[in-house]
Write the C-alpha cells for this entry.
Amino acid sequence: MSNPAFAAPSAYAYPLLLKQLLHTPLATAADQEIVYRDRCRYTYRDFRQRLGRLASALAARGVVPGQTVAVMDWDSHRYLEAFFAVPMMGAVLQTVNVRLAPEQILYTLNHARADLLLVNGEFLPLLAAIRDQLETVRGFILIADDPAALPAGFAGEYEALLAAARDDYDFPDFDENTRATTFYTTGTTGLPKGVYFSHRQLVLHTLATAAALGTAPDSGRLDRGDVYMPITPMFHVHAWGIPYVATLLGIKQVYPGRYEPDTLLRLIAAEQVSFSHCVPTILQMLLTSPAGQSADLAGWKVVIGGAALPKGLAAAALERGIDVFAGYGMSETCPILTLARAGSAGDAAAQVEARVKTGQPIPLVELRTVDEDLRDLPRDGRTAGEVLVRAPWLTQGYLDNPEAGAALWAGGYLHTGDIGSLDAGGTLQITDRLKDVIKTGGEWISSLELESLISQHPAVAEVAVIGLRDAKWGERPLALVVLKSGSSADAGAIRQVVQAAAEAGRISRYAVPERVDFVAALARTSVGKLNKKAMREAAGGG
C-alpha cells in the first residue's frame, strides 16, 4: 500500500478528468477519422486542435470555470467537441433536449442558469419564441452547416469563431469532482429534473463501459476495429456515454445529424458502421423503411435501451444478421448499469431469450432487488422487487431539488423505480416500472411481458400495454397495437397469443386483455420512450 509520506515532492496527483481520455487515442490513433454526414471528415489530431480552438473562442467570450454553456444541436462533430472542450475548461456543459416543448426548454435553460448558448440554425424560430424570457443567457453562437446570416445579438458563427481562434489552449488540472455536465430528465410528470455528473463520474463510467463492451465473449463487443455511430440523441444522457468510450478507444466515429432513415442507412453502408445504440422504435423504423427492407445490415452490433427490447423485434433483427442486445440504465445513472450477454450457444429462440434480458451489471455496479421494507429478495430469477443500485457514477441528486434527491437515495441506494428479479448468475430482468405494473385479480401483471408476447405475432409492428381502472378487478390490461404495413389481425388473434401463454402456465390468466385497440402510432416522450401516462389519459384510464 502506498504511503503519502514516501511520495516524491514532485509526484503528479492524477485527477480523473475528461482530458485524460484523450491521451491514448492521440498517441495511437491520431489519424483515425471522425465523420459528420457527408459534410465533414477530419482526424483525431484535428479534433484535438479544434477542442483548443473552441475553448479559446469560448474563453474570449467570457466563459470561465463554473459557468454553463448550453448546446442545441443535432448529433454532430460539433457536439462531440462540446462534450470535451466545455468541461475540460472547467465549465459545465448543458445538453438541451430540443424535442421538449418550448416552455420546458425555457425552464431548463433558466433552471440550469445557462450563460452561453450554442444553437443550430434550425432552432432559431424556437429560440425566438423564448429569447425574451431567458434569465441568465448573455450570449449566443450560431451553428450552421451552410453559410447563413448572423442573427442580431449573436457573438458569431461556430466555424468562423474556431477559424479565428488559437488551438493551443492549455486545459488546466482541477478537482475531479468538478461538475462536468447537466441535463434534464424527460419524465411524464411534473417539471423536468436536472441531473448532473462530475469529471470523475464520467471517466469511471467510460472505463467501466469500455471494459464491459470490450470483454464481451461472443456478441456485442466494441473494439478498436469498429466504426461507431450513435442513434441516440447526444442531448440524452451523453448519448449513453458511448461517444466518450469511442474516443477513449480511438475508433472511427460517424455522426448523422438529424435522424432520417435513408441517411442513417446510407451512412451505415458508406462508412461501414458496425456499432450503434438506439431505442426500439428507431430500430423498428430502420428495418421496416423502404430502404431498410433491402439494406445489408449483417454484422451490425446494436444496443437497445430506453425501453425493453421486445422478443419480436429481437427475432426480426437476428434474422437480418444484426447482433442486437439489450442494455439498461436511466438518466440518473449516467446511464449504463447492465448489458445483456447472449453467448454463442443455443437455437434462435434461446438467442432471443438471452438478448432481451435486462443483463448483467457492468464493472463497479452493485444491484439489489428489495421488498417494500428494503429487505433483499431471493436471487432465484423469479421473485421481483424494486431494483436498487450503487455505482461510483450515479448522480448525487437533482439540481436545486434536495427533496427529490433525498427520495432518490432513500436508504443509501439509488431507487430506480423499476421492478425486476435477479438470478443466481447475477442477471437482472426488469419486469415493469412501478408506475406501469398492472394490478388485477389480486396479482401484479408485467406490461413489459405482455408487450413482448404480443410483439411475436407476425402482424404486429409495435405494441404497448397499459392498465385501465376496473370496478371489479382493480385494473385490466389494454393492448394498443400498431400493425405492420400490409398486415392484418383482429383483437381475437392478439388475445389468443396471450391466452396460449396463460394456458401453458407462463403468465397469469388475469393477463389476457379483454380489450385490444389498433392504433396508427404509440404516444412517446421526446426521446422516443413509450409515454404510458399519455396513453392512459387518452384511453380514459387516468
